[in-house]
Automatic annotation (TrEMBL):
Sequence intervals crossing the membrane: 38-58, 160-177, 183-202
Organism: Orbilia ellipsospora
Principal cellular location given in the protein's record: membrane
Keyword set includes Disulfide bond: no
Protein name (Swiss-Prot/TrEMBL): Uncharacterized protein
Amino acid sequence: MALPPSIVAAFQAALLSGLSNFLAQILAAWKASKPFELAIAPILRFFIFTLVTTPPNYKWQAFLERSFPTYPTVSLRESKKTDDISLKEKAPVSPIGAPGVPVEPGRINKGNIARKLLLDQGCAGPINNAIFIIGMGVLNGNPWEQIQWNLGRDFWRFQFAGWKLWPLVALISFSVVPFERRVLFGSLVSLGWTIYLSLLIGEV
C-alpha cells in the first residue's frame, strides 16, 4: 500500500533536515579549527521537527494551488491524486475569474501566482518561523519563559533573512514546479537554509 504523498514528502524533508544539521556541525568544526565530533541530539531534533511540520505545510501548498491554480482552466485529469487536490477531478473555475473576462486555456495565470506568493510569504512564512523557534525550544526542553525570550530575540532576524531567499524560491515553485514536487523542491533549498539556521541558533 502506497504511503500518502504528504507522508512521503515529510520523510524526504526530515532526512534532508537532519543531513543539513550534520553538515552544519562539520562546517562549525572547520570554522573553529576543532576536531569534528558528531552530536546526534540536534540532528534528531531537526529530523523530528521537520517530520511533524511538513504535512501541514503540504496541506497549505495544496490549499493554495486549489484556490489559486497556476493553470486555472487546464484539466487536471492527467495528474495523480494528492492528499488535498484530487488531480483526477475537473479543475475548479478560477477564483478570480469574472464574467466576460475569460482566462485562455493552458496559459499561466500570473495573478494567481502573485496571490499565492503574497499569502505564502506574508502569512505562512512568519508563522513557520515562529513555530520553528517555539518547536526547537520545546524539543530542547527549554522552559516557556526561555522560549518566549528566544522568540522575541530571533523572530525578526529569521524573518528578514528568510525574505532574502524564500520569495524567489516560492516564485520559481509556483511558476514552474509541479505541485507534487514543490515540497521536495523546497526541502532541497532548505538544505542550505537549515545549515544557516543551525549555525544561527547554535544547534551544532
